[in-house]
Amino acid sequence: MRAREVPFDIANIPGQETGRIVSAEVAAALISASHRPLLVVGSEAMRDEFFVEKAIEMGEKGVAIAATGKSIRGFMRKGYKKVQYFNLHDITNRLRDPDWKGIDGNGNHDTVIFFGILYYYASQMLSCLKNFALNPLIRTISIDRYYHPNARFTFPNIESDEEYKKMIEKVVELVKR
Amino acid sequence: MEEIFKRGVLTLEGFENVRIFIGKIEEEEEEWEPMGPTPMPAISTIRSWDFKLLRRYKPFYAPFCDFCCLCTFGKCDLTGNKKGACGIRMDAQQGRIVLLACIIGCSAHCGHGRHMLHELKRKFGDVEIDFGPEVDIEAPLTRLICGIKPRRISDYERVFDYVEEELVQLSDALHTGQEGSYLDFESKALHVGMLDSLSKEAADIIQMAAYGMPSSKEGGGPDVPLVEVGMGVADTTKAVILVIGHNVVPAASIADHMEESGHEEEIELVGICCTAHDVTRYKPKAKIISALGRQLRVIRAGIADVIVVDEQCIRADVVESASRVHSPVIATNEKAMHGLEDRTDDPADEIVEDLVSERVPGVVILDAEKVGEVAVKTALRMKDKRRKMRIILSDEEFQRWVGECIQCGSCTLACPLGLRIGEANAKAASGNKEALASLFDICVGCGRCEQVCKKNIPIIDVITKAAHPQIKEERGKIRVGRGPIWDSEIREVGAPIVLGTIPGVIAPIGCGNYPNGTKDAWLIVEEFASRNYIVTLTGCMAIDAALWKDEEGKTVYEKYHGRFDAGGVLNIGSCVANAHIHGAAIKIAAIFARRKLRANYEEIADYILNRVGACGVAWGAMSQKAASIATGFNRLGVPAVVGPHGTKYRRAFLGRSDIEEDWIIFDARDGSEVRIEPAPEHLLVACETVEEALPMIAKLCFRPSDTDRGRSIKLTHYIDLHEKYLGCLPEDWWLFVRTAADLPIARRDELLKRLEDEHGWVIDWKRKRIKEGPLRGYDPSFDPTNLRRLIRKK
Ligand code: SF4
Ligand code: SF4
Ligand code: SF4
């Protein structure tokens, strides 16, 4: 990790507020402390079964899951049903609306965790939430292997896949609901 | 004098710019149709239509930058929807940037059209517009927006006057302290989108008329010839002239000069992007070497003995890149002169001498005929010289470069796609080039990686070298751009499209900034053509879809017919030809439904939104033109799906299927309010991957007017594509069911059961009917409209 982290797409410096880098432990603590977390799992999670398995473990701990892009296929293959497909634009649009009933009909979410999403698409959606999902505020956490300046909390850029997998393992292990 | 009587135009000698119109034109126009309510609408004229769209498809903003730095009050930090010093909020600022992008895009089309009008009128005179026996409605957008039925190309003077005035007013609205509401910025952007569609139509009609490009005359329409496409098609035993851009005039002049000077057999004329489309529409002997995404790589591969650039989407470093491989550059358009000396007035042979001796890296020549002569002479001489040079990397150089890589990852951070080039280099260094070669098609050829490489590795050349065997084999076929859809074709398919039995018109258009390479373009075409949708392509996507073949070695243009009918794959042509897709939708309303066309934008857009199951797909949208094109589709009631990079346009138009009041429209028969299904659900939406895009595109073809048979077909494809690519039934399939007959025939029982079990609907199993449950029942004579004024009985 660099002394000052750079966005994964290096010119993507949005402005004044930039994501705070957190460790796996802190990410897990933030998720555990939230009331209505939503895990948004994108297409990149499909690159290795490991990621879908870890998402399912989070789901089993009581974190609601929205599958965006093609990731729903990964959950279906594992026979996991407690997940709903959403288009990422669509679900972000709903999240920014305080009146949205949430993925389970019980009200909007207070914390959104981005996982396995194409970097630049995720970045734009995080920007929307940063700028427009304020009242009440939605806390965004990226647990992808990229530094995401538009997230409130984010991992740094992580070169090694092994190291990254360990971090994900740790997050899932430590999340308590 | 004759002209005054025939056309009502008086031009005085010495005052060629002054034209006096006499009342006769108006009289003639009365004959074809009475004038509609909104000829040449101004910014506010159709604003109420925009607001209807914006109420349902609320602008969604994802800022790309949290600051505004447009005036010296700033920079202002707008994070969190704060206001800047001028009072503008983040949401309005985003709308402002979108408007700016659309204005740039529309200006490109309008400027291009105006330039061609000047040039071609000078060259060919005031050419008559006649597209043959099957095209009576020659200019649907011009009639619809301006209320003009153009008879000669000079009729477009008035059209450009109108667009240019609007563009100035709209640009004015961008000034600090002008517009302050995001909704009004979006209404203005929609207005520009409409002007953009008009400008494209104008430009294409002018070039079609002047050059006799395919229309409904002999050999046109579905019968247009196939031409070669791909990086492997250039015959480098000949001298190669490469044309790049969008304005065909210089390229056409080169083709003419090749013929006239008898050098036709010694020269290959190849093109990139829309100039390539248009030059093949004029001379099908020319070839399309690539779309935009390969531009830098084609240049750097050193194929060209001379490069001729015109306008739009040309690399700003074209001269630098071309010099590296000793390809002289001729810039031919005032808008893109690249710092080169203007040699328009010098003798051709002198210019050729300077280019061949490489005393200068390139020249500006603003006279298209001279471009033709200089390009041909230069190419012939450069060929002899350049064939003695070695341009692409040798095996040893390749091995040395990949060995130099230290896997620092800087290139990955610079790459817009985050490609892991270092890893691929490491594999290549140990003898396996596959990973590096596989990057070739995904890479968008931007060159950002090379600039940050600490080892100065020419990454693009290294990837190109690794992929050399596949590049040599890249040889496809594409039907040349056919231009307008025929009125006779619309008469055949108008009913099946509106009823839904042809499930949709899919329009893959625009640039090549794809998330995962060109194969997605092919897959989109293949999936929908094989399902009997009509697929109409333009621009880079039309080219990229032709790079891939099926098991029998056929491209989609060889496999599918070129008629505007079920299962057709039509290359409409360049970006400006794209207007014919709008034109087809408009003609369905005018010819099939007999709606009044003249200056009647709002009603026709309302018709299209509710009845014409068309969907644009700009999977690699990159440019400002793509922004204005998509926005123009949207104002006309046609939704569009973009690739993930499209989120960087900052704005989407997203519907909310869960908010009931957004989906209430009128039944024009009696004015009753009807809650409809979310059809179409969004106007502009991005998908993450092609697997997600395919069912989304199918879904956006639903329309409230679908008959039960049509809905059943559309639902079949939506469900099938969802299951095929996403592995499950869509969550929302049931929203589109009004009656049992809407269900896919083969799965009726199973789906009825699901409606009963999962959604609590009441099913009459004896008669296999739905008794209770759907949002609304199916009424075959439902006449949907969003416009109160169209209600017949109040
Ligand atoms: S040229 Fe290709 S590999 Fe290099 S940064 Fe651009 S897209 Fe990435
Ligand atoms: S953002 Fe677009 S226009 Fe600007 S430098 Fe990059 S490629 Fe060029
Ligand atoms: S920047 Fe250069 S040295 Fe670093 S990984 Fe990329 S190619 Fe290798």
Give structural attributes.
heterodimer, A: alpha/beta, seven-stranded parallel β-sheet, 6 helices, 36% helix, B: alpha/beta, Rossmann fold, 30 helices, 13% strand, binds iron/sulfur cluster
Describe it.
- The complex is a heterodimer of chains A (177) and B (794).
- In chain A, 36% of the residues lie in helices and 14% in strands.
- Chain A is α/β, with parallel strands linked by helices and 177 residues long.
- Chain A has a single domain, classed as TPP-binding domain (Rossmann fold, 3-Layer(aba) Sandwich).
- In chain A, strand 2, helix 2 and strand 3 form a beta-alpha-beta unit.
- The longest helix of chain A has 14 residues.
- With 794 residues, chain B is an alpha/beta fold.
- In chain B, helix 4 packs parallel to helix 7.
- Chains A and B meet through helix 3, strand 4, helix 4 and helix 5 of A and strand 3 and helix 28 of B.
- The site of one iron/sulfur cluster (SF4) has 16 residues of chain B, from helix 15 and helix 16.
